[in-house]
Design a protein that fits this description.
Largest sheet: 8 strands, parallel
Order of helices and strands: EEEHEHEHEEEHEHEHEHHEHHEEE
CATH topology: TIM Barrel
GO molecular function, one term: oxidoreductase activity, acting on the CH-OH group of donors, NAD or NADP as acceptor
Shape: globular
Structural class: alpha/beta
CATH architecture: Alpha-Beta Barrel
Keywords: NADP, Oxidoreductase
Strand content: 15-25%
Number of helices: 10
Radius of gyration: 19 Å
Distance between the termini: 37 Å
Strand order of the largest sheet: 3-4-5-6-9-10-11-12
CATH superfamily: NADP-dependent oxidoreductase domain
Low-confidence stretches: none
Protein name: Related to GCY1 - galactose-induced protein of aldo/keto reductase family
Bound molecules: adenosine-2'-5'-diphosphate
Number of strands: 15
Number of domains: 1
Oligomer: single chain
Family: Belongs to the aldo/keto reductase family.
């Protein structure tokens, strides 16, 4: 069975979930989620990660409703679209309506910064921006726990770097249950993970497999560990995250790889360290921020400044 972690709310989150970001929305890939998510639930996945930005909440909700699996056995995360940061209640209610479910287990601020829909201008980091600061937006998230009691079980953040998190914690009344960040052997974020641990914030890793084409699939150290455990690089990487107390939401549309990603192995502390050492010892060997994601200094068309980093 899949291990779970306890959140600071007392709820349990399965260590492995199915990521539902299927690439560029509108390319028909949101439809792919219908079949691959149904397959994932059959394979035993009980943790699903989506977002309003992924434009597939309708499909995700449909698969959950039609699965026949009792709702309380599934842990569902969705995220507030940065274009809706001016209206947290509207954003949340829209997601819940599209999902067609009674509640979400975890609701995240997708990025530190909000984005004004009309002109894509970012805000949220500084007083005097064109919109509320993320501290104010977080206060709206906290209110949801009261005004929408039972409809949202936990709130958290995503893509918060130490700088963002420290600023948020200065005014937060509710400590985020989760910070969902990119994390894999070539981006272990040790300082950030430690900061989250100190504050009782659970970390979930997205792109845990480096989007499937990371050079770490041919990394000598990781391959050696995989061979020692007679398993795959993907399984070692996910086991390494889980051993560090991190849950992971790898995505796969392939039945065999979906199942492979649920079969974890027990790594020794020395093996965990050996994988951490890759980026500690040899900054050249790993790439911070996947080259595939960062294009012309932008991620998904947004500058790092727009992302609040
Ligand atoms: P596929 O859907 O064909 O399995 P990430 O979760 O880091 O974004 O990575 C997702 C990518 O990794 C997908 O392209 C997926 O392809 C691929 N992938 C998923 N599981 C595995 C695995 N066990 N081994 C190799 N590639 C995988």
């Amino acid at each position: 069975s899949i291990p779970t972690f306890k959140l600071n709310t007392g709820h349990s989150i399965p260590a492995i979930g199915m990521g539902c970001w299927m690439g560029q929305p509108g390319a028909g890939l949101d439809q792919e989620i219908l079949s691959s998510l149904a397959e994932a639930l059959r394979a035993g996945y009980r943790h699903i990660d989506t977002a309003n930005m992924y434009q597939n909440e309708r499909e995700v909700g449909q698969v959950i409703r039609e699965s026949g699996i009792p709702r309380e056995e599934i842990f569902l995360t969705t995220k507030l679209n940065p274009k809706m940061y001016h209206d947290v209640v509207g954003g949340f209610e829209g997601s819940l309506r599209d999902l067609g479910l009674d509640y979400v287990d975890l609701y995240l601020l997708h990025w530190p910064q909000g984005i004004r829909a009309s002109d894509e201008r970012p805000y949220g980091d500084k007083e005097g921006d064109i919109g509320p600061t993320f501290n104010q937006i977080w206060a709206e998230m906290e209110k949801l726990l009261e005004t929408h009691k039972g409809k949202v079980r936990a709130i958290g953040v995503s893509n918060y770097m130490p700088r963002n998190l420290n600023k948020l914690l200065k005014t937060a009344k509710v400590v985020p249950a989760v910070n969902q960040i990119e994390n894999h052997p070539y981006l272990p974020e040790e300082e950030l993970v430690e900061l989250c641990r100190e504050h009782g914030i659970h970390v979930t890793a997205y792109s845990p497999l480096g989007q499937g084409n990371s050079p770490f699939f041919s990394d000598a150290d990781i391959k050696a560990i995989a061979e020692a455990h007679k398993t795959t690089v993907a399984s070692v990487v996910l086991s390494w995250l889980v051993k560090r107390g991190i849950s992971a939401v790898p995505k796969s549309a392939n039945k065999d790889r979906m199942r492979q990603n649920l079969s974890l192995v027990e790594l020794s502390d020395a093996e965990v360290e050996r994988i951490l050492d890759i980026s500690r010892n040899d900054p050249q060997r790993h790439t911070h921020l996947l080259p595939g994601i960062v294009k012309d200094g932008k991620i998904g068309g947004w500058t790092l400044d727009q992302l609040g980093w």
